[in-house]
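User: Just a sanity check before I run the rest of the batch. Below are the structure tokens for the first item. I only need the designed sequence back.
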């Protein structure tokens, strides 16, 4: 009896410590977001009023985060993306004085990468003031990173910018008849996110990080990028189909014998594609891919000692099935609406 009581108390103490550690991690996230908002606002305040207004308008126009309607750039990103340097370098001895500029430099590179991605895609045209804002943000990122990592930053910046732009140059429009398999798409997806690695890798190298750990960080990041891309493509396939842009889910459907881009872009194509996604079980398979990549990313981050980012990745993995269920419901409703309208069963 006494042994059982001791085991129960020990278990309760262990659970209490885990809860305390988790609370401390999420408090650090809240502090990180708050500090980053202050630091980025200081960067914005140093701009001329017209450029600052253009930057705020650009944030509202680009609307990266559909859940908020904000002109504040930090609000456009989830903590997992926004605070990636802080999260990725959790196992490294860094002071708050170093973490804050690292996060701010990272946000600067994120903004430039996401804006350029949409400009290259033809989804966005910048005004002169908006272009000045993007350049000012990029310069702010460079200044902060070079102060943090004067030895490693220049080389990493050059290498990763080359990979990023090579990936952008290799993008294609499936509606133009170009083809590519899943391996090529994997490479493109990973490369498009490379700018998100510049700050953590530069700081890690400056602090004397081992090359083996650098490879493990890159590997964990690639897994995360692919998991997030699968999750996004499950939700965004309609937009990508309409734009003729790359989409992992639609590529998976093509591999199963149904090329959505080969069909006329009329009002029934979207319903037919949705029906095919269900009939071919491509949607179910995409859910499996998203979960596996996110679980692999979580596992690798824990091996690196980065438990906060691992917890955030685990939280993101939990919503995969929810988003897929919502997508399935939307497709089923569209199919039923077509049947009730007397148009018959969609073609798969």
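Assistant: Here's the designed sequence for the first item:
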């Amino acid at each position: 009896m006494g042994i059982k009581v001791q085991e129960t108390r020990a278990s309760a103490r262990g659970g209490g410590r885990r809860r305390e550690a988790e609370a401390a991690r999420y408090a650090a996230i809240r502090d990180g977001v708050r500090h980053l908002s202050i630091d980025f606002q200081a960067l914005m305040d140093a701009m001329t009023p017209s450029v600052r207004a253009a930057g705020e308008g650009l944030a509202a126009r680009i609307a990266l985060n559909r859940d908020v309607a904000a002109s504040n750039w930090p609000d456009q990103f989830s903590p997992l993306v926004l605070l990636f340097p802080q999260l990725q370098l959790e196992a490294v001895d860094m002071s708050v004085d170093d973490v804050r500029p690292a996060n701010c430099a990272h946000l600067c590179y994120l903004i430039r990468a996401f804006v350029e991605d949409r400009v290259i895609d033809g989804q966005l045209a910048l005004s002169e003031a908006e272009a000045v804002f993007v350049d000012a943000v990029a310069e702010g990122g460079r200044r902060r990173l070079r102060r943090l990592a004067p030895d490693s930053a220049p080389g990493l910046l050059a290498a990763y910018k080359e990979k990023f732009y090579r990936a952008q140059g290799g993008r294609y429009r499936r509606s133009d008849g170009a083809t590519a398999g899943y391996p090529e798409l994997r490479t493109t997806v990973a490369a498009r996110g490379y700018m998100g690695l510049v700050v953590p890798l530069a700081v890690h190298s400056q602090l004397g990080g081992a090359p083996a750990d650098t490879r493990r960080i890159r590997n964990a990041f690639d897994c995360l990028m692919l998991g997030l891309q699968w999750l996004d493509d499950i939700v965004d396939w309609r937009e990508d189909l309409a734009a003729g842009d790359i989409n992992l889910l639609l590529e998976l459907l093509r591999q199963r014998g149904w090329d959505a881009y080969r069909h006329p872009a009329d009002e029934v194509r979207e319903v037919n594609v949705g029906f095919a996604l269900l009939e071919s079980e491509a949607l179910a398979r995409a859910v499996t891919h998203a979960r596996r990549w996110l679980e692999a990313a979580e596992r690798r981050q824990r091996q690196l000692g980065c438990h906060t980012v691992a917890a955030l990745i685990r939280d993101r993995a939990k919503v995969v099935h929810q988003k897929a269920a919502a997508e399935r419901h939307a497709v089923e409703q569209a199919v039923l609406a077509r049947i009730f309208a007397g148009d018959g069963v969609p073609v798969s």
